[in-house]
């Protein structure tokens, strides 16, 4: 008895002209997600998805390439204005925002939502030699 493959329909996302852009820039990679106001992802891209490997993934050029790919798909679907939420200490933050703006999607607002520790975790014990 052969198993049949389960077919699943792709979820259709309602694209409004105004949405959000999430740029997560770590030291290892950069991930860009364009969503509608409900938070449903319209398109996404990362430096690793674009084919960059190793230390090349956290460069501003890799962020630029990922933002171009992501915003081109979202612009064709009807996204025109975004609020940008930037998270992380990576090097491609500014270049990703500039590329999203230059691709035709207007950047209305930029917010830094990087998490900051209030007191942090407990430091290690004093070293005894």
From TrEMBL:
GO CC, alphabetical: ribonucleoprotein complex; ribosome
Keyword annotations: Ribonucleoprotein, Ribosomal protein, RNA-binding, rRNA-binding
Recorded GO MF terms: rRNA binding; structural constituent of ribosome
GO terms of biological process kind: translation
Keyword flag Transcription regulation: no
Keyword rRNA-binding included in the entry's annotation: yes
InterPro entries cross-referenced by the UniProt entry: Ribosomal_uS11 (IPR001971), Ribosomal_uS11_bac-type (IPR019981), Ribosomal_uS11_CS (IPR018102), Ribosomal_uS11_sf (IPR036967)
PANTHER family, sorted: 40S RIBOSOMAL PROTEIN S14/30S RIBOSOMAL PROTEIN S11 (PTHR11759)
Stated role: Located on the platform of the 30S subunit, it bridges several disparate RNA helices of the 16S rRNA. Forms part of the Shine-Dalgarno cleft in the 70S ribosome.
Family: Belongs to the universal ribosomal protein uS11 family.
Protein name from the UniProt record: Small ribosomal subunit protein uS11
Species for this entry: Lentimicrobium saccharophilum
């Amino acid at each position: 008895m052969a198993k049949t493959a389960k077919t699943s329909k792709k979820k259709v996302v309602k694209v409004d002209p105004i949405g959000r852009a999430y740029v997560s820039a770590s030291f290892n990679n950069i991930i860009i997600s364009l969503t509608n106001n409900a938070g449903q992802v319209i398109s996404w891209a990362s430096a690793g998805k674009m084919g960059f490997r190793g230390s090349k993934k956290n460069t501003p050029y890799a962020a630029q390439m990922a933002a171009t790919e992501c915003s081109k798909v979202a612009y064709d679907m009807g996204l025109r204005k975004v609020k940008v939420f930037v998270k992380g200490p990576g090097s491609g933050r500014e270049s990703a925002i500039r590329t999203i703006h230059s691709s035709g999607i207007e950047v209305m607002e930029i917010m830094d939502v990087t998490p900051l520790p209030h007191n942090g975790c407990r430091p290690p014990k004093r070293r005894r030699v």
